[in-house]
Amino acid sequence: MKTELLTILRETDGYVSGQSLCEKFGVSRTAVWKGIRQLKEAGYEIEAVQNKGYRLVSVPDLLSEYELKSIRKTEWAGQEICCYPVVDSTNTRAQQLAEDGYPDGTLVVAEQQDAGKGRRGRGWESPRGSGIFMTLLLKPGISPANASMLTLVAALAVSAAVTEQTGQPAGIKWPNDIVMNGKKICGILTEMSAQFDYINHVVIGIGINVHNESFPEEISHMATSLFLETKRRFHRAALIESVLERFEHYYAVFQKTEDLGALVREYDARLVNMHQNVRVLDPKEPFDGKAMGITPRGELIVDTWESRRLVSAGEVSVRGVYGYV
Ligand code: ATP
Q: pTM of this prediction?
């Protein structure tokens, strides 16, 4: 009932009468009052006025199933939501849920990750309550060869959502990082379980630094948070909802052709490396050049002084020649 109560309180400008809530849910006044009390205990500020009813005054920055469901406007993303205080990694948890039969679009959210993952076995700093640690489980009917492009689809969604919610540009550092003022606020890690020609499931993990006031020394030169960049606090559930809504949009466009053909322009417009000198940290041989945007398959086009090279995401990182971006 908490989800429904919250949804009604949110949708109503003024007061909702206790009587109308009783009728809506077919329960007693005491049951409604209990629901309201539970919400208050969770941190919701709800005003109760005799003969008028209840009014939602403010909401806490809570990542609960009922909070996320009461603001949900998506069609399929986040239809099932699993929230945890602590997990090892939301990607690992989502993979377990996939094996247990959870459906396409299941969302996993945690307040803290004990073993947050980055690309190529690296870690993701995930202290309690500091950010968004979420994973979207997909069971896409696409070829396994095309799944890596989903990272770029997710990057578009986060870039657009963060820009909208903060009012400050949040660009993409190819292929999977979102940056604000030259520092990283978000990393995306896509993992897949597949047969030769069939995808069992894909999990897209998104870590966004929201409230962090500082970072460990090893990453402080390249990591930042929404709070550090804007000096404002953000409601994490609203940001998650915005990411999911935008993901649904870009994913639908991607699915039509199973490539990024129709998204290249927008991706390039959000690409902080665009027309910048970059260093491609290829384990075989690093090289420098100028980034010229992406191909419809999500490769980065890099003009070196001798030739034009196409860089695939798998094994490489890209740096600005003079710094992180
Ligand atoms: P890069 O291109 O920056 O090397 P990557 O895309 O190869 O990054 P990711 O998987 O996005 O790697 O992120 C892992 C790396 O990000 C870690 O090795 C660490 O340097 C850095 N990192 C870890 N936690 C955070 C965090 N909370 N915010 C920003 N950066 C982080």
A: 0.95
